[in-house]
Automatic annotation (TrEMBL):
This is Enoyl reductase (ER) domain-containing protein. GO terms for molecular function: oxidoreductase activity. Signal peptide: none annotated. Residues 23-327 form the Enoyl reductase (ER) domain. InterPro entries: ADH-like_N, ER, GroES-like_sf, Lipid_raft_assoc_Zn_ADH, NAD(P)-bd_dom_sf.
Length: 329
């Protein structure tokens, strides 16, 4: 079968990994002769992949690198072709979508093994492209806000002021929609109001701000950061002394210790990092919101598996198209 894989660092199959050993995009290779995976354990499904997505910094996700050839692609939408499913959630022929575990990927391929925890049935009214932009981004946003930060899912016991960085990004747009839906006051931050304000208002943001203008903001209870680096460093200035700061940007790992050393962190602020986990329960709730039209994903571009390396590179440039790049397989 055809698959896009990350070439190992050496002929002996030494994997990439942190620190300082991240695969360059040129390490993404298309192969036509990858063995089709076979299901072997209870709870596994073999799916014919119809669509996957591209994430900025995916080659920095060091969890992917234990095997010698990593196949990227965590979001999947496809058709079940074999099941080892004692609980009988799924049957051959079901149309499913979801997110594979961060340490496995697998969906930049014609066939992939996913688990019954990772998949749910795809709503019939969503195309493969429309469906596949939802799982990883919406799960990350949902778990960031409600599991890790612990925001109320209805703000009736107290509305919080929530600042979201990278708000116009692939995950940021879900963070904005979920926090607004829960009734919180959402301030959407990006590098350019000119490029992003109309879009951010259209998905419900109450205020918009550029990163360079953080000083003008009233203090916030919660910051959820998807950008990292200097933007994350600047977030400490806008957070209340007892607030919560969470970053999930791939390069923010270890930021708490680094910022403490630099003297820019605040003692009373809860500083968190997270990695999203596949969850049927999260996906079921998200699918319900999608079906009701409460939450929407966006496709910025559709590419074929052959063009996935160029697509990965273009995910690292700022453009005017909001949404996620879809790989149609
Ligand atoms: N921890 C986890 O579980 C998890 C899960 C999924 C993804 N991630 C990571 O989370 C981060 C955000 O993912 P995403 O898919 O939301 O990213 P994205 O849409 O590609 O980018 C998010 C924002 O980053 C800003 N940005 C900063 N430097 C950029 C550059 N060189 N090119 C383009 N945009 C840039 C942009 O905001 P402005 O235009 O406003 O600057 C953009 O909207 C990535 O590092 C991704 O790998 C982590």
């Amino acid at each position: 079968m055809k698959a896009a894989r990350v070439r190992p660092t050496s002929p002996e199959g030494k994997p990439y990994g942190f620190p300082g050993n991240v695969a360059p995009s040129s390490a993404i290779e298309i192969h036509d002769d990858v063995p089709k995976p076979q299901i072997s354990k209870p709870g596994e499904l073999l799916i014919q992949v119809k669509a996957s997505t591209v994430y900025k910094d995916n080659l920095e996700w060091n969890e992917l690198y234990p095997p010698s050839h990593a196949t990227l692609g965590n979001d999947f939408a496809g058709i079940v072709v074999a099941v080892h499913d004692s609980e009988q959630y799924f049957r051959v022929g079901d149309h499913v979508y979801g997110m594979t575990h961060a340490n496995r990927g697998g969906a930049w391929a014609e066939y992939a093994i996913v688990t019954t925890e990772e998949a749910v049935k795809k709503p019939d009214n969503l195309s493969w492209e429309e469906a596949v932009v939802i799982p990883g981004s919406a799960i990350t946003a949902d778990q960031a806000l409600f599991r890790h930060v612990g925001l109320e899912t209805t703000a009736q016991n107290g509305q919080k002021r929530v600042l979201i960085t990278g708000a116009a990004g692939g995950i940021g747009m879900f963070l904005v929609q979920f926090a607004v839906l829960a009734g919180h006051h959402v301030i959407a931050a990006s590098s350019s109001n000119e490029r992003n304000e109309a879009f951010l208002r259209s998905i419900g943001a109450h205020e918009v701000v550029e990163y360079k203008d953080f000083d003008t903001l009233d203090k916030v209870d919660v910051v959820v950061d998807s950008v990292g680096f200097q933007v994350l460093a600047d977030c400490w200035k806008v957070i209340k002394p007892d607030g919560t700061l969470l970053s999930f940007d791939a390069c923010s790992w270890g930021y708490r210790e680094a910022h403490k050393e630099k003297g820019i962190s605040k003692e009373g602020v809860r500083a968190l990092y997270m990695i999203a986990e596949p969850s049927r329960e999260s996906m079921a709730r998200i699918t319900e919101h999608v079906a009701k039209g409460n939450i929407k994903g966006r496709v910025s571009k559709v590419v074929s598996l052959n063009d996935v390396r160029e697509a990965y590179e273009s995910a690292h440039s700022r453009g005017s198209a909001h949404g996620r790049i879809v790989v149609l397989i």
